[in-house]
Write a structure and sequence with these properties.
The structure is a single chain. This protein is an all-alpha fold. It has three helices and no strands. α1 runs parallel beside α3. It is elongated and about 35 Å long. It starts with a helix and ends with a helix. The mean pLDDT is about 90.
Length: about 50
């Protein structure tokens, strides 16, 4: 089960990272964004989407 959870978390992180990169909301690189937690990525996304 932990393998499925890890996979789901990585997919969610990838979604946020690619959204932020594609939208141009940040100057951070993909590698930098991947070091963020899901909560940090979600907050960045929500802040820029307003």
């Amino acid at each position: 089960m932990s393998m499925h959870l890890r996979s789901a978390i990585e997919k969610l992180k990838d979604h946020y990272v690619h959204y932020l990169l594609k939208s141009g909301f940040t100057d951070a690189s993909e590698d930098e964004l991947k070091t963020f937690t899901i909560t940090e990525l979600k907050n960045l996304t929500n802040n820029y989407s307003k």
